[in-house]
Amino acid sequence: MSRRGRFITLEGGEGVGKSTNLAWVADHLSARGLEVVRTREPGGTPRAEAIRSLLLDPADEEPLDVDAELLLVFAARAQHLARVVRPALERGAWVVCDRFTDATFAYQGGGRGIAAARIAELEAFVQQGLQPDLTLLLDMPMAAAQRRLEGRLDRDGGARDRFERERGAFFEAVRRAYLARAAEAPRRIAVVDADRPLAQVQAELARRLDACLERWG
Ligand SMILES: Nc1ncnc2c1ncn2[C@@H]1O[C@H](COP(=O)(O)OP(=O)(O)OP(=O)(O)O)[C@@H](O)[C@H]1O
Ligand SMILES: [Mg+2]
């Protein structure tokens, strides 16, 4: 019987370095001989990625209702949990995921203004008690993260998605909601100052991960 794997999520606002560090975290764990599945939300399966496209599409001719947005996020999550995350954890693999439900509390809660209690109901319904074992919350001031994002958009020639088009106040609210969530779950959520050179951020991520590896045995 293999032991259940661990579920690690990376969180934070736009441009804080989640994707950059996700690859690094996955490599760090693989180097310790663990089977690692890297994935992301919303998405992670073909159908869930199709829901992601609906969520990110700016399509201004039909604004997306905030409750519809919330339900789409959880629909994608149910699919991702059923098809990818739970099977991986059950066979003993570790799952490293770019965003999860803390992002819903931050974006749909803090950003869109949906009550946390309503999000928590859907969280209980869809997750049935499943929570990440560790969440690495990359935190930095919005303006600095925006500059990084602009650097990336310039290099990609990429267009802004429906969230990236939001205003500063939206991202400030997202950041506050993330930090409030971290304050409520300090054992699970590690707040990492992301406004530093990558090597320093990754040194702290390594310390946090290795402490968990030790604790979990
Ligand atoms: N510590 C850092 N210092 C400087 N630049 C960084 C750092 N971390 C990431 N970057 C750069 O910032 C940009 C955004 O990083 P990345 O795409 O990983 O962020 P993200 O959190 O995944 O963004 P998004 O929310 O848009 O998915 C990239 O160009 C990346 O190379
Ligand atoms: Mg990313």
TrEMBL record:
InterPro entries linked: P-loop_NTPase (IPR027417), Thymidylate_kin-like_dom (IPR039430), Thymidylate_kinase (IPR018094)
Keywords: ATP-binding, Kinase, Nucleotide biosynthesis, Nucleotide-binding, Transferase
Residues reported in the UniProt entry to bind ATP: G12, G13, E14, G15, V16, G17, K18, S19
Top-level EC class as recorded in UniProt: transferase
Reaction catalysed by this enzyme: dTMP + ATP = dTDP + ADP
Molecular function GO labels: dTMP kinase activity
Pfam families per record: Thymidylate_kin
Residue ranges constituting the Thymidylate kinase-like domain according to the UniProt record: 10-204
EC number(s) reported in the record: 2.7.4.9
Function summary: Phosphorylation of dTMP to form dTDP in both de novo and salvage pathways of dTTP synthesis.
HAMAP family assigned: Thymidylate_kinase
Family: Belongs to the thymidylate kinase family.
NCBIfam families: DTMP_kinase (TIGR00041)
Name the record gives this protein: Thymidylate kinase
Native species: Halomonas koreensis
